[in-house]
Amino acid sequence: MSHIADGLIKFEEYAIDRARWQLSWRDQPLPLNRKTFDLLLFLVENADRVVGKDELLRTLWPESFVEESNLTQHIFLLRKALSRHESGAKIIETVPGRGYRFTAPVTAVETEPPSAADRMVIKASESITRITLEEEEEDTPEPFSQELNGAHPLLSAPSAKHRIYWIAGGTAAAVALCVAGWFGWQRWLDHTSGAQVRVVLTPMDGTTGDAVLDKALTQALRMDLGQSPYVTVVPGGTVMATLTQMMHKPDDAITPAMAREVCERTNSQSVLSGTVSKIGQHFLITEEASNCVDGSMIGQSKYEAATAEELPHAIDKLAANLRQKLGESRRNIARFDVPLFHDNTPSLDALKAFTLGTQLIREGKFPESIAMLKTAVADDPQFAAAYYNLAVAYASAGDDLHLRESIAKAYSLKNTAMKPTQFQIETMYDSEYTGDMYELVRDFQSWVNLYPNSSQAWSGLAGAQGDLGMDSESLASLTRSVELLPHSQGLLANLANAQIRTGDLKGARTTCDRAIHNNLDGDGIRVRYLQLAYLLHDAALLQEQRAWAQAHPQAVGVLGLESQIAMAEGRFDDAHRLIARIRELHQQQGLFGPDDEASKFGAVDLMQTGDVEAGKKIFQQSPVDIEEGQEVLGLVYTGDIAAARSALHTNETKYPRATMTNRFWGPRTRAAIAMAEHKPGEAAALLESTRPFDKVGRFLPWLRGSAYMAAGQPAAAEKDFRSVVDHPEYDPTSPYISLSWLGLGRALGAEGNRAGAIDAYQHFLTLWAHADPDATYLKQAKQEFAALQKVVALAK
Question: Does domain 698-795 have CATH number 3.40.190.10?
């Protein structure tokens, strides 16, 4: 027998109101999308048995094929909603190999349908001295207490005393009506249809006669809707990735049925589809919101434009009207309704150039995108979003100088931009211009507070937290970002990295497997597999990734990690070859900035791990960027200490707020200088201030331990070396893990702990079992280990 009645169904202080399609906990509404709510109803309806996954897939998606991962995600969302009860009992139980079961006892509560008596009215109670506003149930109007009689004229002249009462009473009534009207107006402004809405925006049908303008209108609508905290537009990249999963080609026309399936796969509620038509010189734009379950229309908005130049402004108006049709409050729309362009600007040409430039960024054609975005800002010098995208293009091309110029210009215009664009500008400004990482975290936190459904904001917050070593916080932010955008290879790769860094190796493997299952295989995912294989000493998994890399020789990420592994094992000839290959690939792609940066970073690692001459040769192949901390450090290892000091002074003067410049790279570089000048005690003291960043890179505690060892403080050195070898998960392939084993052996030997020292040396020699025979640290370790063994033998 069905458990679902017309009344309420209660369990564990939750209540299901089917008539209103609402789930609540202690009378607090819990928003669920329609598909997740349908899943809850079906499980409750069948609470007396285990419901198989196939049955759920057939029931919830009767006319389409979806993967089991889609069902799993709805189960996850449902469990998250049902996680507030104090008993902690698992309400949705997984029965391995079979399906799911609803386990909570349910109680049916009959309720009466809402009536006019449930409506709230405002009644003014008045007296001469006070006015009160009361909320009460609407009553039937009472009849007049007395009949009108001809003997009592309607307009008889009142006495003076009564006139005063009438004036006071009338004033009180007027004030009460004004107050009531004001409250009613506020309620009207704040009225919303309920939970926030996630929508899929499809390209407009029809044409303006200009193919670029056609794309620009969809881009403009996406930006206009994007400023709403209530309406979240699924990113275009996610739509394309979902279509690929559905076995469609990127250039396939999106049919209504395809759009609805994308809508369901992305946990959205509505599809937005529009048309544009040209009638003479006039244009008509129509945009319709439809339910992604059955295709029924939710609302429609139409606007006409007399000329092509008026189209961007027509899009602004259409978007505002559409937001209201989707249920957003009028107050919210008024608050977040900045037009894409201001009046009297050549906005149409700027919009077209902006759209093309943005598309070229997505295609990886950075020089072409830069040229097009320069055209956009020339057409409209006040176009803040175009300056921001120009900064993005420069960043992708490795042009840091023009990146900073562009983002500074965007920042000066940020108040003219839509709110999401303001956040984008502010975060890039603090990331790339001021370098204030703590302010950057605050920027992103403000962003996610206002736009909690922005995956970009959560991902950015995770990155900033990770750069500061806030690994647990970064993992939480990435988890939220992936919930919002589950089909992004980059986000899944970042999530796996955060899971590795926090020690959740099983979770990281599951995340990578999930990506492969969802056809999101690629360089980023394989890098995480490779880290896991190396950390777990899983030879089969390691071989699997290397076989994949052989089949994908353009995978720069895997090549970069392999070069790090080679250095971690003392295989410097292999590292040279890999660094050269990465440089070649970057040059083939026209990425000369990233080419120089990657080569120099590799060269500095080579010099630090003992391959000094080869590292110097690679480092000196191209000019030094003194604003890159790693390259300034490289100056120290090549012996140009005066240039390193000068660069430090310049950077600290130019960027007084830069967190990493002043608190990470500055002390690190000065400590390297002190070591080069044979002042290890000074180096150790300088590196004490960097302890908050020890999780960011394994180099810091290794260098500090080396400084303490050189200063004759082996006990202090031991602590730092142990902090590296005890936590390989922070950076599994770091060459400083193996070098810290060597350092630990030296420290323990100096302390007289010969057994511990032998064990540490053996760890190092095992890791360097395949090292180049002439590797500096290998030769030193073998000599020291032999001497230690001799001492132990003599002691016996």
Answer: no
Asked whether 396 and 374 are in contact (CB, 8 A), the reply is: no
Tell me the two tokens of residue 12: 């564990």
Residue 169: which pLDDT band, with cuts at 50, 70 and 90?
A: low
Whole-number Å distance between alpha carbons of 395 and 433: 12
> Cβ neighbours of residue 304 under 8 Å, at least 6 residues apart?
282, 283, 284, 285, 314
Phi-psi region for residue 247, left (φ > 0), alpha (ψ -120 to 50) or beta? left
Which comes out higher in pLDDT, residue 387 or 188? 387
* Residue corresponding to tokens 């995912």: 525
- In sequence order, the β-bridge partners of residue 277 are 284
Q: How far apart are CA 508 and CA 518, in angstroms?
A: 15
Burial class (CB in 10 A: 0-12, 13-18, 19+), 23: buried
* CA atoms of 104 and 112, how far apart (whole Å): 25
Task: Count CB atoms within 10 A of the CB of residue 547.
Answer: 10
Nearest to 229 by CA among 543, 51, 448: 448
Give the predicted TM-score (pTM) of the model.
Answer: 0.72
272's tokens: 């937005």
| Per-residue pLDDT tens digits for 516-570 | 998 889 999 999 999 999 999 999 999 999 999 999 999 999 999 999 999 999 9
- The structural domains of the chain, with segments of one domain joined by +, span 8-109, 197-340, 625-677, 698-795
- Residue 774 to residues 117, 198, 462, 533: CA-CA distances in angstroms? 91, 60, 42, 28
The answer to whether the CB of 634 falls within 8 A of the CB of 603 is yes
Q: CA distances (Å), 204 to each of 252, 255, 276, 308, 310, in order?
A: 14, 12, 7, 16, 17
Secondary structure of residue 690 in the 3-state scheme: coil
Distance CA 336, CA 227 (A): 6
Burial class (CB in 10 A: 0-12, 13-18, 19+), 658: buried
110 residue type, one letter: E
User: 429 pLDDT exceeds 90?
Assistant: yes
Alpha carbon distance 577, 282 (integer Å): 62
Burial classification of residue 563, based on how many CB atoms lie within 10 Å of its CB (0-12 exposed, 13-18 middle, 19 or more buried): buried
Mean pLDDT over each residue of the chain, to the nearest integer = 84
pLDDT band at 704 (very low <50, low <70, confident <90, very high): very high
Which amino acid, residue 304? E
- In CATH terms, the fold of domain 8-109 is Arc Repressor Mutant, subunit A (1.10.10)
Residue 604: name the closest of 585, 628, 569, 584 by CA. 628
Name the packing angle between helices 680-688 and 699-710 (round to 10°).
140
CA 466 to chain centre: 12
Owner of token pair 């394989």? 526
Written in H, E and C, the secondary structure of 323-344 is HHHCCCCHHHHHHCCCCCCCCC
Backbone angles phi, psi at 463, to 5 degrees: -65, -45
Partnered with residue 284 across adjacent β-strands are: 277, 304
CATH of 197-340, one of 3.10.50.40, 1.10.1090.10, 3.40.50.10070, 3.40.50.620: 3.40.50.10070
Are the beta carbons of 593 and 403 closer than 8 angstroms? no
What length is written for the chain?
796
Task: State both tokens at 755.
Answer: 């057994």
Q: Is the dihedral of CA 666, 668, 672, 677 positive or negative?
A: positive
Q: How far apart are CA 23 and CA 21, in angstroms?
A: 7
- Using CA of residue 517, residue 518, residue 519, residue 520, what is the dihedral sign? negative
DSSP codes, 577-593:
HHHHHHHHHHHHTT-HH
Higher local confidence (pLDDT), 738 or 146: 738
| Mean pLDDT of the 747-769 span | 96
